[in-house]
TrEMBL record:
Domain Glycosyltransferase subfamily 4-like N-terminal: 37-230
Pfam families linked: Glyco_trans_1_4, Glyco_transf_4
SUPFAM superfamilies linked: UDP-Glycosyltransferase/glycogen phosphorylase
Gene Ontology MF, one: glycosyltransferase activity
Protein name: D-inositol 3-phosphate glycosyltransferase
Taxonomic placement: Bacteria, Bacillati, Actinomycetota, Actinomycetes, Micrococcales
UniProt keyword Transmembrane, yes or no: no
Transferase listed as a keyword: yes
InterPro entries: Glyco_trans_4-like_N, Glycosyltransferase_grp1
Top-level taxon of origin: Bacteria
Keywords: Glycosyltransferase, Transferase
One biological process term in Gene Ontology: carbohydrate derivative biosynthetic process
Amino acid sequence: MLGHARARLPRRPALTPPYSGSVRIAMVTDYYLPTLGGVQTAIKAHREELVRAGHHVTVFAPLAAPSPDAATVRLPTARRFAPDGYPFTWTLRAATAVLEQELVGFDVVHVHTEMFAALAAYRAARARGIPLVQTMHGRIDVYTRSVLPLPAVTTAVLAAMHRRGLGAADARIDPTAHYARTRTAQRMWRLMVGQAQQADHVIVPSEHFAGKLRAQGVRTPLTVLSNGLESSVLAAIGQPPPRHLSAGEPLRVLWCGRLSPEKRPEVFLDAMARTPGSTAVMLGDGISRAAVARRAAAIGKGRVDVRGSVPQHEVLSAMQDAHVLVSSSWDFDNQPMVLLEAVAAGLPVILADPDLAEALPPDGYLVAASPDAEGLSAALTALAGAPEHVARMSAAAIAHRPQVAQSTHRDRLLAVYDAAISARRVR
């Protein structure tokens, strides 16, 4: 059942600030490598930088096969059920039993998701008396509405299973908020709030999502802490030269993300159709792949290259070749890791959603006048006609590179762990 048998860790003495000795961290997630996505990228960055600083990190996740990495432990995984292509933890009872056994000797549990691996982590941490930190990475209300079949039914089933797995939680929400007016959205907000309320500390990568969680009733200690990129990724990119767009040169556009309705790839394609003289590369896969490929082909030969899912190093290489990254997501994303990668690569960004600008340097992006295809096309056209803006935005991104390094945020993450451990100790 487990990827590797590991020696039991002796329990360490209590932490004494500033983090004397090695902290032993169990990261639990429903999505991990080799599948691709922002959560996986964020966990990989956390892990590398914490280990470089002398701490012990083990990742627990459902996997299609045991990992060759001794510090990645496979949770019980469904054999024939992989929603949206992701391995699924099954059963909850079996995963809880594995985690209860494996968590002996760990100082803190850090959960990154909301599905069965996460629920098993809450149960096991509670049974072992280990403090638990929860990172809220995304808006599952939008994701479930966009991806799940029959969301009115499937969200009800998911919410019921979540309540049964996590137990009673104080999750009274404000249904008048514009994003919580439907019954399906309210179910998912109760799920998110209820889970956050049972953590010892909550991390949110952005102020805009943190504000929504607070408005919906989260009272757990909450820290806004940006994600970051590990040192190996920054080293692989190197020091990028500023982008240069020559007069008459086609604007080279990059789109990168899950090909799924909540990311709005079709809006991006409609924008490209309205912007002659530009070319695009689309990286990613998902349930909309076939529709995206058909729409891209209809725009014209050589205009949009849909390449599918690629590893991170190929994403970074594509960024080096592009003039601008377009984020067509709107009212969904928290802090897309691809925006941090764009900064590291010195790549200007066009946003549909102004909330996402907090991850970017002030002069390194444009926000479309409207989040639709017309607004994105207007922003692309304006940039194509102003090569000096491409160079200026690129220079701003390059100057901002230190702010997207995970090492910049590592000590604040350790401070959150310390706060959770200290709070649990005094109870």
